[in-house]
């Protein structure tokens, strides 16, 4: 009889809307009332929240890309340092992709498709940096680096489009500078 009462109470809450946003455990023992556990329902980010989330996702890779470029272009060329920096960039790109595609981050409709497009481009960066980082000679490294970085010139300005729509500065260096 207690199980039937528990089921009826749970049904009444569900039908009346009082239980919206909560999960109900119907596996209570006869002497234990049902437990209510709030569930977190993600909501679409505001433009300001999306801007902060976007910068939190992309700034580490922007900063690492600058550091990596400095290492690769340093004279004299240091193959091991360049491979290490490129591997770090690869790992940072992966972390950025994970942040941009997190199921709990619901991007506003104004940038959702652009975020998806940017993520697709970053998968290319992830592959490109992986290829560059595994090269064994300076010649192969340089060839792979140049091939990968020259392909970026053909890309649309997706990141700048997102920045504009979110009201962020077009200056990637200053908007990602440490305080």
What is the number of E strands? 2
Main sheet characteristics: 2 strands, antiparallel
Mean pLDDT: 82
Radius of gyration: 24 Å
Weakly predicted, low-confidence segments: 1-30
Instruction: Give the number of helices.
Output: 7
Anisotropy-based shape: elongated
Strand arrangement across the biggest beta sheet: 1-2
Beta percentage is under 5%
Order of helices and strands: HEEHHHHHH
Gap between N and C termini, in Å? Answer: 63 Å
What structural class do the secondary elements suggest?
A: mainly alpha
Helix content: 55-70%
Q: Could you name the key traits of this structure?
A:
179 residues; mainly alpha; two-stranded antiparallel ribbon; elongated
Short description:
Mean pLDDT is 82; it is low at 1-30. By secondary structure, this protein is mostly helical.
Give structural notes.
Helices cover 64% and strands 4% of the residues. It contains seven helices and two strands, in the order H-E-E-H-H-H-H-H-H. The relative contact order is 0.12.
What topology emerges from the helices and strands here?
Blueprint: H1 2-16, E1 22-25, E2 35-38, H2 47-73, H3 79-100, H4 109-133, H5 138-151, H6 158-165, H7 172-175
Antiparallel strand pairs: 1-2
């Amino acid at each position: 009889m207690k199980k039937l009462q528990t089921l009826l109470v749970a049904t009444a809450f569900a039908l009346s809307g009082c239980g919206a946003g909560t999960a109900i455990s119907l596996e209570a023992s006869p002497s234990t009332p049902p437990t209510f556990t709030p569930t977190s329902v993600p909501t679409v980010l505001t433009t300001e929240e999306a801007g902060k989330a976007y910068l939190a996702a992309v700034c580490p890779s922007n900063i690492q890309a600058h550091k990596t470029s400095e290492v690769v272009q340093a004279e004299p060329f240091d193959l091991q340092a360049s491979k290490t920096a490129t591997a770090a960039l690869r790992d940072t790109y992966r972390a950025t992709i994970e942040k941009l595609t997190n199921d709990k981050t619901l991007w506003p409709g104004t940038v959702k498709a652009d975020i998806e497009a940017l993520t697709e481009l970053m998968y290319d960066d992830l592959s490109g940096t992986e290829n560059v980082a595994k090269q064994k000679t300076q010649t192969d490294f340089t060839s792979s680096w140049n091939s990968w970085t020259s392909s970026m010139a053909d890309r649309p300005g997706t990141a700048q489009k997102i920045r504009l729509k979110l009201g962020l500065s077009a200056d990637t260096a200053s908007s990602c500078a440490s305080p």
